[in-house]
Every structure is written in C-alpha cells, then in structure tokens.
C-alpha cells in the first residue's frame, strides 16, 4: 500500500491557543481512517490544515510526496483532496443534480462533462433516483450524501468527511457506512471525523486520537479503544468496546 498523505509535526496556534500541537500521521491509499477526540481537540483545525483552508504555524503536509501546506484550497482540491463540512447547506434553488455538478466545475467548464460526473457521484452515494428533486425535499441523510457527492464530483483521491453521521439514526448511519466502505473498496482514501465510537469501530481500519491538540494514540480501532490514555481523556471509564 502506498502512502497518500503525510502530516509531519503539524502545529497551528490561534493567538495564545495551540489548537493543533506537533501532530504527525500518515494515510495509506484506499483506507478509511478516523480522527477522533473530545470537543475542541483540534480535529476540524487538522482538516482545515490538510485542505489548505488554514496555514500551519509549523510542520508540513505532503500529498503524494508534494508539500501542499502553502497551497490555497482550490489548488489542494484540484490536486485531489475534497472535503465536506459539518453543517450541510445545499443550494436550495438548484436541483440535487445541479448541486452535485458544482464540484465538477473545479476541473471542467464543460456542462455535459460536469453533469455526467455528477450523475456518477450521485449513483455512488445512492442518490441517482433523486437527481431531479429539489434539495428541500431531501432527508438529512440524503443531504449529507449530496454533500459527499458534491465532494466526489471534484474527482478526489482523498475525501475528508467532517461528522457525516452526526444527527442520524443508527439505520441511517448504517446506510452511509455501506456507501463509505464501497468508496474505499473502489480505491478512495477517506479521513473522517466521527464521534460515535460504534461507527468508528465498524468503518475505520485505523484511528488517530487527538486531545488538547496533541495526538495521544494511533492504531487499529480495537487497540485504540483499549488504550488507557484514550479511555481516560475521551471515552470514559464506562466505555466497553
Ligand atoms: N479560527 C479560530 N480562532 C480561534 N480559535 C479557534 C479557531 N478555530 C478553532 N479554534 C479553537 O481551537 C481549538 C480546536 O478547535 P477545533 O474546532 O479544531 O476542535 P474539534 O476537535 O474539531 O472540536 P468539535 O468536536 O467541537 O468540532 C478549540 O479550542 C477552538 O476554540
């Protein structure tokens, strides 16, 4: 397996607050990795640093061996990193398909090319049948999948998913887990922020744990949930894997 992304000694401060502190990890191609930790641990800041939305105070981000932390988000996106946001806000006056096309305009100006990529993205998240629906007719899980389809339309190699299962019922989340597993089987690399440990255990083959901005554990989910540091800082003594 090849390494797609390397985060090396990454730090980011906001004034006196160190939000991400000397964090290193790498992502293997085709694997699903979860980034977990309590509120304020630095997960979203890490995402923003990888996606080019924030510049690191120190450290480096390498994608396919090239340093990307000085590149703007549009360049990072064109290189193959796409992200979704915690709060999903589709363009309400546009159809599901038109929303999914937005991502494709990062690499083409050809409308029919964008439309065909958008269909393919909607198909891979199970939304093709609703391509012509209005976005206000979508359920919350569908809106989350539309956000994912929009990101897929950019043709990413790495997909960053910020709390894509938040607010969903277990059966709805199970559907999304299936979609993510299929995407990874197709070769996509996924880094996801997720709070529900049951989902992390099911979907991720590797877990990185942040606490107060620093990495406190990393490994397969079964190992990480048994780590005393993780139990103490995040999961609590009552957690049973
Ligand atoms: N733009 C900013 N300006 C100042 N402080 C910030 C900024 N962004 C994040 N922070 C602070 O950095 C720390 C890490 O925040 P971050 O959002 O990365 O955590 P998180 O792990 O994603 O939390 P959550 O699970 O609540 O989303 C927090 O203390 C937060 O208040």
What does this entry look like structurally?
- Residues 5-237 form the ABC transporter domain.
- One of its GO terms (cellular component) is plasma membrane.
- It comes from Bradyrhizobium elkanii.
- The structure is a single chain.
- This protein is an alpha/beta fold.
- The chain has 2 domains: 1-80 and 156-241, P-loop containing nucleotide triphosphate hydrolases (Rossmann fold); 88-155.
- Helices cover 36% and strands 26% of the residues.
- It has helices at 43-51, 73-79, 96-104, 111-124, 140-152, 170-185, 197-203, 221-224, 228-235; strands at residues 3-14, 17-28, 32-36, 58-63, 66-67, 81-83, 158-162, 189-193, 206-211, 214-219.
- Helix 3 (96-104) crosses helix 4 (111-124) and helix 3 (96-104) packs parallel to helix 5.
- It is globular and about 50 Å long.
- The structure holds adenosine-5'-triphosphate.
- Residues 14, 17, 19, 37, 39-45 line the site of adenosine-5'-triphosphate.
Bound heterogens, unique:
adenosine-5'-triphosphate
Which strand order does the major sheet show?
6-7-8-3-9-10
Cα distance spanning the termini: 28 Å
Structural class: alpha/beta
Give the fraction of residues assigned to helices. 25-40%
The CATH architecture category of the largest domain equals: 3-Layer(aba) Sandwich
> For this entry, what is the oligomeric state of its chains?
single chain
CATH superfamily of the largest domain: P-loop containing nucleotide triphosphate hydrolases
GO molecular function: ATP binding; ATP hydrolysis activity
Function: Involved in beta-(1-->2)glucan export. Transmembrane domains (TMD) form a pore in the inner membrane and the ATP-binding domain (NBD) is responsible for energy generation.
Protein name: ABC transporter ATP-binding protein
InterPro entries: AAA+_ATPase, ABC_AA/LPS_Transport, ABC_transporter-like_ATP-bd, BCA_ABC_TP_C, P-loop_NTPase
């Amino acid at each position: 397996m090849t390494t797609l992304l390397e985060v090396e000694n990454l730090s980011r401060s906001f004034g006196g607050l160190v939000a991400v502190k000397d964090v290193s990890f790498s992502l293997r191609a085709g694997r699903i990795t979860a980034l977990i930790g309590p509120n304020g641990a630095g997960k979203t800041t890490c995402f923003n640093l990888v996606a080019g939305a924030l510049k690191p105070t120190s450290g480096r981000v390498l994608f396919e061996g090239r340093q990307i932390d000085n590149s703007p988000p549009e360049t990072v996106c064109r290189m193959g990193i796409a992200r979704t946001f915690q709060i999903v806000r589709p363009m309400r006056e546009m159809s599901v398909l038109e929303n999914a096309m937005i991502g494709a305009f990062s690499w083409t100006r050809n409308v029919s090319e964008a439309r065909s990529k958008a269909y393919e993205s909607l198909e891979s998240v199970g939304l093709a049948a609703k391509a012509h629906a209005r976005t206000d007719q979508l359920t919350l899980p569908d809106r989350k999948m539309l956000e994912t389809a929009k990101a897929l339309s950019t043709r990413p190699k790495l997909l960053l998913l910020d709390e894509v299962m938040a607010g969903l019922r277990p059966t709805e989340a199970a559907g999304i887990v299936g979609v993510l597993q299929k995407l990874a089987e197709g070769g996509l690399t996924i880094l996801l922020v997720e709070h529900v440990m049951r989902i992390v255990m099911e979907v991720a083959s590797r877990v990185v744990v942040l606490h107060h901005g620093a990495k406190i554990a990393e490994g397969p989910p079964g190992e990480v949930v048994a780590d005393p540091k993780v139990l103490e800082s995040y999961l609590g003594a009552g957690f049973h894997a």
